[in-house]
Amino acid sequence: MTDLTYSDIPAGKNIKPKLAFDDWIMRAFIAMISLYLIIALALPLYSMLSKSVATYHFDLTQFEFQVSDEEGNFSGDITTAAALNESVDAYGPEDLAAGSNDRLKVTAFFPDFSFRSPVLYKIRGVTSDAVYIYGSERHTGPEWNEYDSNQFRKIVLRPVASFGLSNFSRYFSTPSLVRSITNSLVISAISTIITVSLAFWFAYSLARSCMRFKGFFRLIAMAPILVPSLLPGIALVYLFGNQGMLKSFMMGESIYGPIGIIIGSVFFTFPHAMLIITTALAISDARLYEAAVTLRSSPWRTFWTVTIPGARYGLISAAFVVFNLVITDFGLPKVIGGQFNMLAVDIYKQVIGQQNFEMGAVVSVVLLIPALIAFTIDRLIQRKQVALLSARSVVFVPKENPKFDWACFAYCSLITIFIAGILGVCQYAALIKFWPYDLSLSLKNYAFDLMDGGGWAAYRNSIKLALLTAFFGTIVVFIGAYMVEKTHGFRTGRNLFQFLAMLPMAIPGMVLGLAYIFFFNNPSNPLHIIYATMAILVLSTVTHFYTVSHLTAVTALKQMDNEFESVSSSLKQPFYKLFARVTVPVCLPAILDISIYLFVNAMTTVSAVVFLYSTGTALASIAVLNMDDAGDIAPAAAMGMMIFYTNVAARTVHAALSRMLVKRTQAWRSR
Amino acid sequence: MALKEAELAVSESSAERQAFLKIDGLWKAFGNFVALKDISLEIEKGEFVCFLGPSGCGKTTLLRAIAGLDIQTRGSIEQDGKDISDLPPSQRDFGIVFQSYALFPNLTIEKNIAFGLENTGVSKQKITERVNELLDLVGLPDQGKKYPAQLSGGQQQRIALARAIAFEPGLLLLDEPLSALDAKVRVSLRHEIKELQRKLGVTTIMVTHDQEEGLSMGDRIVVMNHGVVEQIGTPTEIYRHPESLFVADFIGEMNQIDAKANSPESVVIGKTTFKCAKHDQPSGQAVVAAIRPEDIIPHGEGARSPGAKDNIKSPENTVSTEILDMEFLGSFWRAGLNGKKLGDLRLIANFSINAVRRMDLSVGKSIEIEIPPERLRVFGGSGQVVQE
After folding, report:
1. What does the pLDDT average to over B73-100?
2. Which residue from A minimizes the CA distance to B101?
3. A102 touches chain B (CB under 8 A)
4. What is the pLDDT of residue B1?
């Protein structure tokens, strides 16, 4: 018998299932959360992309002039600005290409213009697209307006917008900007190689040796996650800067530049790489090692034929994650990069420094490409890693080997000293009166209110942001994941949602922040009201960290029996009863993990919010950046350490809370 | 008066014949793949029906269509006279038990059973009473305060059953309920479920790939393969009179022998003509003759000599063979047989321990075997054999 296909079904109408009330509610939820992701992600990105191809030029054919004689009688010809420009050659083609904020003075078309002359001028736009400005009055349309000479000199023309790739060609013909591409790629590649190698040996020591203090080493190695990425930059300035404690170690090289960026990048990406590689090593099958021993393979050969192949997906995945983190990071190169330009910093400079939003958008698009590639490859590899995980294997238990164990201990101690040292230097710097002249201890660097950057209010804002992000983010993420994972039908909607939920991981924070400016700072957007409020900061932070939270929730939900929903509906119970009484309680550990993840990241993030904060909503992490920028490095270090301690406290509370809740609500887990 | 009673009896019997669940012309496609092909069947009230077939035959798909969990592409389903073809699960009347139990892990046994009774206007006290009644019914009183993980697999499945029947559904659906359990528990739970079903009189459909389970539990069995119904019948009908080679092979064991049809009641195997069950294959047609291993009757060496105690019923269907090998399977012996008259064929036969002892059978020994004609069934040419 051959298998039948759809076309073998006799002609007729397919049965259209009736929808229960539950189905409608669920669809409404999917629609709402999809709408959230569309507004918070898709539309802003779209406005950014369209901004990058928006070009401006002065269209001189759109304006017409008429000049009177000295008595004020208009008898002369009506001429277009284009014709005037051709005859007097006032502006060349490069002058007519413009940015959105450029203006063109009209007096240049009239070589004999004098503001004292009694001659009168008439001007109009040919179409309603043509805009000229008198003082601060905006004029458009084919109405003639009359001005005397003194008024006429205040008239400027506005450029018209069109679409094209000229922004990109301008970008690629500016050597200082293009150099950032190579800089970013090279720095990211070097940092990746160093971090992954260091993290691999660290994870290997934790997994395969019998050394002592493993828990302590792991704890310290995770610490960099709790601080903003720019904090190591500050520590490096104190260590190796112009007045650094260990300046001689630099042998004449400057820490401001590639060296500083690489060391700092290794610091803040280390825990990410270590986590991934630890997971990869943990799934190695002990039976393979037993087989290798019985086959009398040397440890060296076993390492290359068993260990490395087993962990290869983890290594590759870690490499791409680190690469992505470094290339999209903004805070660190801003603090320690000196004159060395990187893509993420270019966006900042173009937007904040030069107010050139189009060019900022172009750099964003350029930065998006390597980030997207790294993200895609990482996703493909993770899928394979999952397949490995599900295979049944025997857990590897290391045997004691004093020589090897001591070597591992020494190595891990070095790494731990590096990480703790960086944090220690920051804390030391924060407590010293005036490095390097007055080394007495004081708390004056904590008087944030006396400095620029937002003061203690910024710190309170940060905590507020972190709490709001954790609260609303967890709700949105978990409900969204539930809808994707546990509903039937409505496949198109769910696929779109799944795609949107994965997207934020590929979008660098700077790009997201800039996209938010374009989308929300548009006065014709009804959502404009949230611009420059705490709401937009929460929105951007939840969106920025959406993917990892979403994946955590999905993993937890996948572990639940898919038939729960079937049973519940056969028992005629609404889905929300099942959700509240079973799904949420069972997933509580994952829900707590999501909230602490969002909290910690909201405390440390700089990149997305740097474009979005306002005077009332300054943040601690931004304050670190701004105080450092203003030369208040010690207070910056102090604020950075405040973020660190806050996150440590949050984690401790989270751990205690988890333990308590698990005890109370997860009694069923124990037999 | 007598007439009225007769009328009543007639109407009652016709009401009985009115199917409780009526499936008509059901098709189900997943994308381009057709999982169910034109399924029609009727299930009586109070019946225990098993959907039996190899994995991927569409039995679970059919069950899920009946439940409304994966609604069919075409065709109609009627339950208790009501068309439920396009209704969502929550608007149908059934209880369901899954292979994975699907007990809510964070709720106690009591709360699990009570889950479907809450918010239905039943008072708390009534719910407690009902829960205790159900716990008694499934033989697990005093376990109500425990969590599912604290019970064994078999106990968990009983709780799942109690939860499914708590609100007295008209139809009970069991999706491979015993597959996750170990052999002994499975056998004992089989009887319990069957007993419970008989007590409650609830119409039940069970999906299983285990033929033993199907045969022992079902009042009727629906054998499925490749999305079609191969045969519907009582366990004995299915076992004794398989209508297709697939059914013959899937249910129990079967010697499949290449043969040639002779007359409507005989078939040629090797060089010997055997009498067989009636068939409609034309003479000379290549066919497959089938006999179950346990239907082959052994006779001692001297069985044919006059005065022998062994009673050969059909001497024309009796041939002498040699025992090639023997395998002890606990409750019986399995022997491989070969005989000149059978050509180079190897027959499998199951002999009781008793018979082996009585006739002192061992490898290399010659024995007479009798193939009862009514048990030798003939199916169309081997080209029609449905391979799984």
Report:
1. 93
2. A563
3. no
4. 41
Coil, helix or strand at residue B191: helix
- First vs last C-alpha separation in chain A: 50
DSSP A497-535: HHHHHHGGGGS-HHHHHHHHHHHHT-TTSGGGGGTTSHH
A582 to chain B: which residues are within 8 Å by CB?
104-107
DSSP label at B315? G
On chain B, the residues whose CB falls within 8 A of the CB of A14 are 73-74
Asked whether the predicted pLDDT for residue B276 surpasses 80, the reply is yes
ipTM of the complex: 0.81
Closest Cα in chain A, distance from residue B245 (Å):
14
Shortest Cα–Cα distance, B184 to chain A (Å): 23
pLDDT of residue B382: 47
DSSP A340: -
CA–CA min distance A8, chain B (Å) = 8
> Which residues from A are below 8 Å from B102, CB to CB?
561, 563-564, 566-567
- What pLDDT, on the 0 to 100 scale, is given for residue B9? 45
Query: Mean pLDDT of all residues in chain B?
Result: 87
B88 with A1: Cβ contact below 8 A? no
Name A297's Cβ contacts closer than 8 Å, sequence gap at least 6.
Answer: A305
Dist. CA A166–CA A172, nearest whole Å: 10
| Angular region, B352: left φ>0, alpha ψ -120 to 50, beta rest | beta
Q: Does A1 reach chain B within 8 Å, measured CB to CB?
A: yes
Structure tokens at A124: 């109009």
Q: Is the pLDDT of residue A457 over 50?
A: yes
* Pairing of the two strands A145-148 and A155-157: unpaired
Q: B310 falls in which pLDDT band (50, 70, 90)?
A: low
Residue A496 binned pLDDT confidence (cut-offs 50, 70, 90): confident
**B251 against A94, higher pLDDT:** B251
C-alpha–C-alpha distance, residues A640 and A625, integer Å: 9
pLDDT at B46 exceeding the cut of 90: yes
Q: Where are the alpha helices (DSSP H) in chain B?
A: 2-17, 59-67, 109-114, 124-137, 153-165, 183-200, 211-217, 235-240, 245-250, 353-359
State which residue of chain B sits closest to A20, comparing Cα positions. Answer: B88
Q: Which chain B residues are closer than 8 Å to A669 by Cβ?
A: 105, 149
pLDDT in tens, A224-244: 999 999 999 999 999 998 888
Q: Is the separation of the CB atoms in B274 and B329 below 8 Å? A: no
pLDDT in tens, B342-388: 877 889 999 999 989 988 899 998 888 999 999 999 988 544 433 33
**Percentage, residues of chain A above pLDDT 90:** 45
Angle at A476 between CA A471 and CA A480, to 5 degrees: 150
CA distance B258 to A302: 55
Tokens of A164: 């094209």
A581 touches chain B (CB under 8 A): yes
| Separation of CA B293 from chain center | 19
Distance from CA of A650 to the nearest CA of B (A): 27
- The whole-angstrom distance between B143's CA and the closest CA on chain A is 14
Confidence at residue B14, expressed as pLDDT on a 0 to 100 scale: 47
Alpha carbon distances (Å) from A656 to A597, A649, A663, B233: 16, 11, 11, 62
Mutant choice from B104, B117, B151, B384 vs A, greatest count of A C-beta within 10 A: B104
pTM across the whole model: 0.84
Whether B69 sits inside 8 A of A571 (CB atoms) is no
pLDDT for A308: 86
